[in-house]
Amino acid sequence: MDDGASVASGDGLAEDDGGDYKPGARAGRGGARRSDFGVAGGGAGAAGDNKLVKPKKIKQHNLTSGTFSIPPIPRNADGSIRLPTSVGIMQIKSLGTVDTRDGFHTERYIFPVGFEATRRYPSMVDRTGTTEYTCRITDGGDGNPRFELHPSDQPGVVISSGTPTGAWTQVVKATNKLRERNHSNSVSGPDYYGLSHNVVKAMIQELPGADQVPGYIWQHFVE
């Protein structure tokens, strides 16, 4: 089981540790309680004209195009990708839609709006149990994506951040604190979202518009 041990961040975005998850966080749109630390000057809904903090890209100049062997991607009779499908410990539910705006990709990753995957990880409320987390990418409405985590044992709770690492760091911190573990809270959000897996990268590159994403370093995958 993945216990959230220290791994390098691979977002390709400015450092964002996501703050701290607080049980019973305020209600967001649609009644879901959110732990949302991507807002300048306080939580979302604060008075004034607070704006979501936009993550800044860190150029990864050593990244080059390469060719990688991958196992066969499950497909329907018409050749389309069959979903849901298991990739490692992840269950990929939806690949989403490519958004070519600058905030929705880095040189290393494409962040499709509507991407959804699930995985198990230690619970933030049951110190001896695990739970299923649904990982989603949504349109933040400010030209950047939002990365949301929905723990199945806390209906209505949404962990949200401007980067995948920011979202998952909140979960790792909460699980370590609950279990009184003196572990590192470092985590690679793209890994925990499944976005760094070559099979997932290959599937995302098959989405319409993926070849039009500016600045993304295209990779070649051989099944």
TrEMBL record:
Provide the GO biological process annotations. Answer: regulation of cell cycle
Q: Which stretches does the entry tag as region Disordered?
A: 1-35
**Which GO cellular component terms, listed alphabetically, does the Swiss-Prot or TrEMBL entry include?**
nucleus
* Keywords assigned by UniProt, alphabetized: Nucleus
Query: What Pfam family is a match for this entry?
Result: FYRN
Task: Fetch the SMART domains from UniProt.
Answer: FYRN
Domain of life, per the record?
Eukaryota
Q: What is this protein called?
A: F/Y rich C-terminus-domain-containing protein
* Organism, as annotated: Rhodotorula diobovata
From the broadest rank down, the organism's phylogenetic lineage runs: Eukaryota, Fungi, Dikarya, Basidiomycota, Pucciniomycotina
